[in-house]
Amino acid sequence: MAQPQTPLQPAYILHSRPYRDSSLILELLTPEYGRIGCVARGARRDKQRRQQALQPFSPLLVTLMGRGDLKTLGPVESAGSAHWLRGRAVYGGLYANELLVRLLPVGESQYQVFAAYQDLLRGLNALVGEDSRELLGPLRLFELKLLEDLGNCPSLNYCALTQGPLDPTGNYRLERETGFVPVHRQKGAVSRADEFIGEDLLGLHGALKSDSFPPAQLAVAKRLTGLLLRPLLGEKPLQSRELFRQVYGKQ
User: Is the alpha carbon torsion for 45, 49, 55, 60 positive or negative?
Assistant: First the structure.
């Protein structure tokens, strides 16, 4: 009986690892199936095919065959020019790939995440890659979009207690199950890591809508995404971060 086969669809390779003597297991990101695994049979034997097609950051059109969770990779076509990331931008791309592998469920459509990933690659592709600070804006924007699309980022302009808009002059604490709630501090008291000024949160909300992060908001964005990502990622360190530190030191 012939295996069911999907039509050609857009995809990016998030991760690959050897499988048996000559094949690869690939983790793909597609809009229709989200993260999905497949076997590229004979890919390690066909060096030219792998070098030209089965590379990260390259837009592909793929066909997937089979009924189980682990599909078989069918015909592959290029869907455009590969993003040749340079210097530190390579590690930004690897970090995004690792986030997607760790956080995305298997087999669920991810149209918005796919679009956000495409935007990130375009942004990283435009960087020289010589300064780590270049990566901060594109990566924070991608993290927030990813968390928002997965339902793990509360509304950045909404107070969960009053069920209304945030007060720009107010102080708010992040509660993961409910969102941002008002907190009253005595004058001069040191704020906690999970507390934010309403104006900063509204600024992040505006940045998400405009797809651009002003430099002044990057520190707040990093603190917020760190709080939201930490419980999702658990204790296992991100390999892309460790690799970056090995190459460039702690930055």
Answer: negative
